[in-house]
Amino acid sequence: MSATRHIRCPRDAARSLGLAVTGLAAVLWTSCSLVNQELPNQPPVVQVRDVDTLVVARGGHVSFTVSASDEDDDPLRYEWTALGAGRFSDSLASRTRWIAPTQIVGSSEFFLVSVTIIDSRPETEDPVESFLIEVVQRVPVLIAPRDTVISFRDPEVVLVARASDEDNDALSFAWEVLEEDGLAANQVRPRTQNADSMSTLRLLALVPGDVVLEVSAGDGADTVKAEFTVSVLAPDLPEGGTVTLSLPSVDGGTRNYEIDVYEYPNQRGVAPLLVESWFEAEALCRERDMRLCAQDEWVNACRGPESLPFSSVDDRDDLPEQFGLRYCNEIGSDLSGGDLVDPETVAPSGSFPNCTSGSGVYDQTGNAREWMQEWIGPAAGATTTEGVGRAGGQSASGTAFVRASCAFNLTFGAIQLEGDLPRPVPRAFIDSMLWAPADPAFADSARTSAVYQNYFSEPGERSGFRCCR
User: Which is higher by pLDDT, 128 or 426?
Assistant: First the structure.
């Protein structure tokens, strides 16, 4: 009988053999897995990054271009954000335009504009491109008028302000009279007219003096201002004296005469003397070796070289209801006010620099009514001297009267001519009658005569006068 032989392996050796087999299997499995597993997904890569500006005005546009490629050929999308500021023309495109906010804090504010490039693979990190954009508020540029000097005789001054705005914002203009440094607002009349980039101010000063003005231009966010002065100068007026004027004569030539610049006592800055009767005025002129002005002489000086209806270089129709020291002293002036006034309320001579027609004679419109005289000749074919002779008269224009023209005057009954009247009547004879002194006895008798009552004033309605020769 044969015996069976058993071979026994030690326990440690057997364990080592098992581990060797297992390791070989793992190596084979790993190699196989590496062959069959996909490669990791690659994130998008930015190829183009462009912006047309990094500084933009409020409400302005910024154009962006961001373009990326993807190695895995994954479809890409773009998501733009500015954290809620402004808006995008297309927030999901590679090219877009951002419209900046219309309101910012201060004159400059920064905004972060970002785009995220997404390939829809959760295991990759999406790239982000960012741009820091400054939005600015540029203030308007104002070109204001310069300091200006004009004459009070000028009807008005035209002032122009211009402005521009780099942001193309709509502009608004405003003008203001700065009362603390010059004339008050109620002493000027401003009229404005505005256009897109220009404003015109037509300024009429109602009294001489400095008008301090401020003009401003605003774009809704910022306002720029400029200050300037318009100096309105009163013309130099004479202290008194006479001016020489001329009138047509009957022979086709001219005759010259002198007339006081102001109402008697003919002194600038002195109030006119008001007298109770024509006879008193006539006597005071005679003391100066002069006489009361004839009506044609007075009207000629009042109307001036341009035959104006009123004795002023100002047109009353172009003035406001309250016209300050323009025109003449009648209702509506600074001194007379806006209501009916006492006819004896008169201004010192020369207070109204524009109350002249250009003849050099002042205050014939408004202020004091004035005594004057007139020659009344015989009517055509008259055979008697009844009603012929020297007559008193009076201007209708005064402080309490409105718009009485130079030619609107009163003529009283003639002082009866004594003696023979030459026919035809030579100018020398007329002049001698106008120069003849009034008989004091006749003046006394005239006071109680109804025929000559206009030669005397009612109480509180005395008149002034000026003298001629």
Answer: 128
